[in-house]
From TrEMBL:
One Pfam family, short name: TetR_C_43
GO MF: DNA-binding transcription factor activity; transcription cis-regulatory region binding
Name of the protein in question: DNA-binding transcriptional regulator, AcrR family
PROSITE patterns assigned to the protein according to its UniProt record, in alphabetical order: HTH_TETR_2
Organism: Paractinoplanes atraurantiacus
DNA-binding region per Swiss-Prot/TrEMBL record: 32-51
Keyword Protein transport: no
Amino acid sequence: MTSPLRRDARRNIERVVEAATEAFREHGLEVPLEHIAQRAGVSPGTVYNRFGGRDALIDAVMPALIEARVREAIDRALAEPDPWDGFAVYVTMLCELQATDLAAGDALGRRYPSAERLTEICNAQIGDAQTILDRAHQAGALRADFTTEDMPYLFWSSAAVARATADTAPDAWRRALALTLDGLRASAAHPLPAPPMTHDEMLAAMTALGERRQGRS
């Protein structure tokens, strides 16, 4: 028979995960762990003892959500007969996810290396994104010099607009993204003043964003 202590410990873990899921979605992945503990009705020490820190808690909450939503965007994009429409659908769905779920926005635009499962999922989707870009390139619809390493620019800028306008003009990010997408059409292409980031540079930049959050623990 399971002891009362073990049942209590398991219930505390469930409470922390539930509280973290809600808090991350409302405030992003930077929300203080103390806030999560208070919301779960446990001590901060319980959070640290059960999860060891923020990234482990992120890894307990985010992978299933991100994997399902990113997979949906990829499948919708590849199902589009027009490669440009597929590219636009993919980008728009992920930007919409960012605008409506702050935790997803952080997960898509940053890297948390100690959240190993989430990092694995986010890195794996880069190959699918490349397939979407390749289709649009081969159709002559997407400017030829746009790479997967340029994708974070779209997510960073869209996330910044969504956060800045959330209370005043919650759909403003859609206009900003539409302007950006028009600039990515091959027909509108002009030479760019700098080369794209390398794959390693892109991951380093995303990791740095994850490490700069206030109250990192």
